[in-house]
Amino acid sequence: MTVLETERLTKQFGGLTAVDEVDLAIEQGEGVSLIGPNGAGKSTFINLVTRRLDPSYGEILFKGDSIVGMEPHQVVQLGMSKSFQTASIFPELTVEENAVIAALAAEHGSFRFNFFRHENAYPEVTRVADEVLKSVGLYDERESQADSLDYGNKRRLEIGIALAAEPDMLLMDEPTAGMSPEETKSTVELIKEVKRELDLTFLLVEHDMEIVFDISDRIVVLNRGAVIAEGTPEEVQNDPAVQEAYLGGVEE
Ligand SMILES: Nc1ncnc2c1ncn2[C@@H]1O[C@H](COP(=O)(O)OP(=O)(O)OP(=O)(O)O)[C@@H](O)[C@H]1O
Ligand SMILES: [Mg+2]
User: Fold this and answer.
1) Ligand 1, atom nearest to 14 Cα
2) Which of 115, 116, 139, 169 has a CA that sits 20 to 30 A from residue 216's CA?
3) Are residues 154 and 103 in the same domain?
4) 13 lines ligand 1 (CB under 6 A)
5) Are residues 39 and 143 in the same domain?
């Protein structure tokens, strides 16, 4: 199944074309990274897909249906989740309460149907939340106040919050920004683990090439808003157009 598909997706800011007729398809279970130099249009692309920005023209299909014109919360309910949003954590609540709220917020799952009519719905939501906390390694911290977690664990909780909505696809824009090398390593391991365990489909924007090559099934390279290369990590690494975009044509 194709989870996400864009057709000639374009965003112009005045005279600047930030995203230029991008065709992209991501299949169920695929981990795709979007890379490119500063200003290439990566964040703009993510903002179009998550419906924080309206395209100038072009189409966005999520699980086969057009989402152009939808509100951001509607696409979340359809199963698209974005991690690493600032302020996704409620600092004064416990780790578990944060996961429970996230599980409740997305209403596309079957057990959430008629949620308020089921008297044992809370244990069910808690069960989902606890499973997610186990998969991100925070189950033992579930009673802790979210605010008391260290930086690395807060980022793990943010991933947990995104996963608690049981998304069909997870979007991440520079998830390791601001992390220590150690925290970066454990976050990368976590994403790989969760992908394996949950057959997670993701779209990742990341500058660190080591991470990108490690984590991706496929890499899409943007430059000045347009896709200039696409393929496996090996294919992209050896692509002259990519070396040109990154190195300005300087050969090593
Ligand atoms: N709201 C906006 N109004 C006007 N121009 C914008 C806006 N948002 C982005 N741009 C411009 O669009 C282009 C693409 O920006 P974008 O933030 O998508 O790049 P990026 O690939 O995410 O870059 P970075 O790697 O630095 O995060 C840039 O030239 C940027 O200045
Ligand atoms: Mg960006």
Assistant:
1) 4
2) 139
3) yes
4) yes
5) no
Out of 43, 49, 84, mutate this one to test ligand 1's pocket (max ligand atoms within 8 Å of CB): namely 43
**Interval 21-34: pLDDT, tens:** 999 999 999 999 99
Same-domain status, 43 and 73 = yes
What is the token pair recorded at 36? Answer: 């490119």
Residue 32 pairs in a beta bridge with: 203, 218
Q: What sign has the CA pseudo-torsion 84, 88, 93, 96?
A: negative
Closest CA relative to residue 34, chosen from 244, 230, 242 = 230
Strands, sheet with 16-27, edge to edge from the N-terminal-most edge strand = 16-27, 2-13, 57-62, 65-66
Q: What separation in Å is there between the alpha carbon of 144 and the centre of ligand 1?
A: 38
Domain region containing 54 = 1-79+168-252
**Residue 233 contacts by C-beta under 8 Å, 6 or more apart in sequence?**
212, 213, 216, 219
Ligand 1 atom nearest 36 alpha carbon: 21
Are residue 97 and residue 74 in the same domain, yes or no?
no
Does residue 103 contact residue 165 with C-beta atoms inside 8 Å?
yes
Contacts 24+ apart (CB under 8 A), 231-239: 236/35, 237/213
How many residues belong to the chain?
252
